Amino acid sequence: MKRILVGIKRVVDYNVRIRVKPDGSGVITDGVKMSVNPFDEIALEEALRIKEKGGAEEVVVATVGPPDCQQQLRTALAMGADRALHVTASGSIEPLVAARALLKLVEREQPMLVILGKQAIDDDNGQTGQVLAALWNRPQATYASKLELQGDTARVTREVDAGLETLEVDLPAVITTDLRLNEPRYVKLPDIMKAKKKPLDTMTLADLGVEQHEQLKLVRFEPPPQRQKGIKVKDAAELVEALKRKGLL
Amino acid sequence: MSASILIVAEHDGAKLNASTAKCVTCARQLSGAEIVIVVCAADSAAVAAQAAQLAGVTRVITIDNPANAHALAALLAPQIVAVSEPFTHLFGPSTTFGKDLMARIAGLLGAPQVSDIMAIESATRFRRPIYAGNAILTVEVNGAPKLIGTVRTASFEASATGGAAAIEKAQVSVELPTHTRFVSVSAAKNDRPDLQTAQRVISGGRALGSADGFKILYSLADKLKAAVGASRAAVDAGYAPNEMQVGQTGKIIAPELYMAIGISGAIQHLTGIKDARTIVAINKDGEAPIFEVADIGLVGDLFQIVPEIERLIG
Questions:
Q1: What is the pLDDT of residue B175?
Q2: Which of A3, B122, B156, B232 reaches 20 to 30 Å from A204, CA-CA?
Q3: Test the A interface: residue of B75, B84, B104 with most A CBs within 10 Å
């Protein structure tokens, strides 16, 4: 079966103002809205569009994380994923661990494509897709803004610092999404009801034979340094004067 | 055990990207570290010569292969792994080139990666921004023989030149995959300074109203020898190409002077300009969040103010 595997992560919603805990042990997540990582929503949307155009038969969504992640898996099912896989784990899940778990799912599911967000907006690591592609020994096309499937290959336009780069990769491959790939659909209420009946399999990292190590110890969280409040000028002439005083013109 | 750091050079085949010199400065924060640059290219001579001049670099390793004409992570990663054995740290810049490549190397080596290093506290302890720069994390790497890092280039000045490191050709005989092929790269041609290294940057937002509206910025930029950037909103609206985007998901920059014109200042944009020395904001909405971070703010109509600034500086 032609299948697409989409990885998602539960993160603090992008609209929430992030506050660091006073003791520096993390950021405040109690009573804070949690969502599917926005780049992962784009990944799922792309997979659904491919399926709707007949390019794939099944979209499977997966996550690695604590029991609460099921909410985000249900959201993904409501968006249109066919089934969900939940690898349960607690604590900080490092990219290498997440990628090893995804590799095990890839071996079971044999997808033609794996689509992930280019980074999660919490830890901003931006590694999991590339690490998975390396472990799997398959192509990677990161920061995708356009994806076209042509038989056994994919043509991917990537947003790189120089502009837009186009690669051709053999399938199966790992794609990571950038913002302009698509605009994810909104979930409708009847779909939320339907999603409750869709299959959601749960397993542990140990079930997959993946060890959860902690090589990256999160020592301390701090708020960023604040910039000094500046001055207001009333017109262009004052602005030019101010810049000259600072030696900038 | 003293650290030995391998830095992967970013270049376009002829010229070493300034991001590499910034990685060297980052690596030099670790006193006593041996710093080696690896250049993968079709013909590495010109780039290796530039790398060898960076102060603090002990050696330059070159890996020449016609397949390296375009920097494809899937092809470069196994070649770099092939020369990585003696090193404790492998660094690359936190540019799209480095972010794409270094994590693939981390995967091949099964090594942990610290992304976006903004400061080095010890050989195993680093500081990095998370949550789009809304928190700073100190991270300690435990029990890993080798670690991978990407360097947040906006946090470091480019290392000076004046060095004369030895250049060695490495014989690398790994089989390269054929599953990933370069097709093309397209970029708007312009003669302005590079956005990521320019001392002055003028950026426009959605208030410019159209691609045509950006012309007043280009005109001022040419007078100031500045690079031109854009907010995500302006790029999404089609007023400017994506490579001009400044912000968390675009380019993170640290110019001497940053002028935000008609940009409201969404958090993801502010993340990209936090390290600018002086921020100027021009916006008709006096309540716009950009004024919270601006050193000099001017409330008014940008279509009058920008041409007037150009006239005043003559």
A1: 94
A2: A3
A3: B104
